[in-house]
Amino acid sequence: MVAVHDAPVSFDKVRGAACPVMCFIRPGEAGACDRYFDVEGAAVRFDSHVVLERRVERLPSRSGIVDRLIATAFDNGAAAALAIHQRDARPPSVCRAKPNCVVVISPRHFAANSPLNYGIQMSSFNQERVLSVRHWTDNLFSFTTTRTPTFRFRNGEFVMMGLDVGGKPLLRAYSVASANYEDHLEFFSIKVPEGPLTSRLQHLNVGDEVVVGTKATGTLVIDNLRAGRNLFLVGTGTGLAPFLSIIKDPETYEKFEKIVLLHGCRRISELAYGEYLTHDLPKDEVLGEIASTQLVYYPTVTRDPFRNRGRITDLMTSGKLFEDIRLDPIDAANDRAMICGSPDLMRDAKAMLLDRGFEEGNHGEAGDFVVEKAFAER
Ligand code: A2P
């Protein structure tokens, strides 16, 4: 493994600062993300690589600052280190301090995979193979697929995805529910009996092929938000999908103190991923600790008896939500929000935030909140 802090910089090596998400790729898996390498201040990406080794070490606390170091070695000779800081009484957060996140790769590898070359190699679609399928209800299902290593996305983005029907791609926009450092893709979908795509897609089996566009896009990315205290993720139905990706991104926890994930559904059975969010994520080897301290998951239903009842917008307006989660009511000076759901939810949630003085952000300009519709066939 290449030494991390004092990696030798010789004529055949390029040294740059790495985004911590590299460290979240599991051993034996391949992965890549958009923002992980920066050479002399310029963001540069290089090809996906297989993680050979990952070590999570408790460090002797240097003046109480660095708590843990995660070191990762890749098959292309790269190495990355991520320091988890414990700052005073504040919850642990992921550190991007440049001196602690250094990657050394060979310039040959980096040049062969420069963005310039990507442009030439890219075609419009990748064929992916279904790895698993889960049916949540008669109307909702999710599935995972392989991920072509060159496919890049930012957490929260969507991509065109669908089936090859008689030689023609039949596609819809789908948010990617997996994180951009994982080696598979995950999608969360409704089933529309007469829907041209989902009536077919719901019958997917392991081993079947789906078509995935090579270009991801979307407004629900944390870079479109101004810095803030707490982040409110407002999702209804399959509008949860982009937030599943965002809550696995270590940068989210670095940028915000608390992340409040609100999932509103009609029925309890539709609260997909509840088990994962409540039981599995807090036990995750790497994300568990930060998620346990910083992530607040608040599921609510409108048409079944449940501990949390009512529309998210109503729970916010009445203040009940903030009482339940013991946080100050959302306010534009401190808090940020993302909205994803039906057109009605988008309209009402947006009006509520505008009313409170929030400004909408988009690609060009960061704002206090961003909105995207949950893509669905109706
Ligand atoms: P409700 O049952 O009161 O309509 P849908 O399946 O229609 O997309 O709804 C998913 C969840 O979002 C439901 O709990 C629904 O509540 C809620 N919802 C629908 N419209 C709005 C809205 N305009 N504002 C807040 N929540 C909404």
If you had to describe this structure to a student in words, what would you say it looks like?
There is one protein chain. This protein has 378 residues and is of the alpha+beta class. The protein folds into 3 domains: 14-118, no CATH class; 122-213, Translation factors (Elongation Factor Tu (Ef-tu), domain 3, Beta Barrel), CATH 2.40.30; 222-371, Nucleotide-binding domain of ferredoxin-NADP reductase (FNR) module (Rossmann fold). The chain is 18% helix and 34% strand. It is built from 10 helices and 20 strands. The protein has helices at 107-112, 115-121, 198-201, 241-246, 250-255, 274-280, 288-294, 312-318, 320-325, 343-355, and strands at 14-18, 30-31, 37-39, 42-43, 49-62, 66-74, 79-85, 93-94, 102-105, 125-135, 140-146, 158-165, 168-175, 184-190, 209-213, 230-236, 258-265, 295-301, 336-341, 369-373. Strands 13-12-15-10-11-14 form a 6-stranded antiparallel beta sheet. The protein has a 5-stranded antiparallel beta sheet with strand order 2-5-6-7-8. Strands 18-17-16-19-20 form a 5-stranded parallel beta sheet, with helices on both faces. It starts with 13 loop residues before the first strand and ends in a 5-residue tail after the last strand. Residues 1-20, 33-47, 59-68 and 83-122 have low confidence and may be disordered. Residues 236-237, 264-266, 302-303, 311-313, 342, 344-345, 348 line the site of adenosine-2'-5'-diphosphate.
